[in-house]
Write a structure and sequence with these properties.
Elements lengths: L23 H16 L7 E3 L9 E4 L8 E12 L18 E4 L2 E7 L5 E7 L5 E7 H15 L3 H7 L4 E5 L2 E5 L2
Antiparallel strand pairs: 1-2, 2-3, 3-6, 4-5, 5-8, 6-7, 8-9
């Protein structure tokens, strides 16, 4: 099983390199990423990007629910995003009922709402190297945007701060607002 890289490791702040060859060594890495993601239970993880396991590569996986099949995204590009799940709620922040808290396996015990689009059109390669263009919506779209940020060296906490949204730290099962 791979070790999850945590802040302040610099690999989390650097853009990744594209993957040029999908060989057995790379497929083994993806399999180990899946094994690592599935093993996370406090809290459970729903996505994992290359930088989070110390690999500066353009790959991430998602597994929105424990019963979901893991999806692999290699060299992904968001072609279009829109129809934000929260666009109806113009005054995001304390009054928002739709904004869900995001967390990250690389930033344990920190949570924050993040404004994300409700739909993304993504171009990527699958594990067979085939190019795929597909639209994702809802929770999958949110996970994909979070993981795409990892590939750009952006953490969800940076998004929250840019959006002037609160950060929370989990202490003894309770969330305490952080001052920043």
């Amino acid at each position: 099983m791979l070790k999850i890289v945590r802040i302040p490791n610099q690999i989390l702040n650097n853009p990744v390199k594209p993957i040029s060859v999908i060989d057995e060594k790379f497929k083994k890495l993806v399999y180990e990423m899946e094994e690592t993601l599935i093993a996370q239970d406090d809290p459970p993880g729903v996505g994992l990007a290359g930088p989070q396991v110390g690999e500066n590569l353009a790959v991430f996986i998602i597994k929105p629910t424990p019963a979901s099949k893991t999806k692999v995204f290699i060299n992904p590009k968001i072609l279009k995003s829109g129809e934000g799940s929260n666009d109806k709620d113009k005054k995001l922040g304390k009054k928002s009922k739709n904004l869900k808290l995001e967390g990250c396996l690389s930033i344990p015990r920190i949570w924050s709402p993040v404004k994300r689009s409700g739909r993304v059109l993504l171009e990527y390669q699958d594990l067979a190297g085939e190019k795929v263009t597909k639209e994702f919506s809802g929770f999958e779209a949110i996970i994909i945007q979070h993981e795409m940020d990892h590939l750009k060296g952006i953490l969800f906490t940076q998004r929250s701060i840019e959006q002037n949204l609160p950060l929370y730290e989990e202490k003894n099962g309770e969330l305490e607002k952080l001052d920043y």
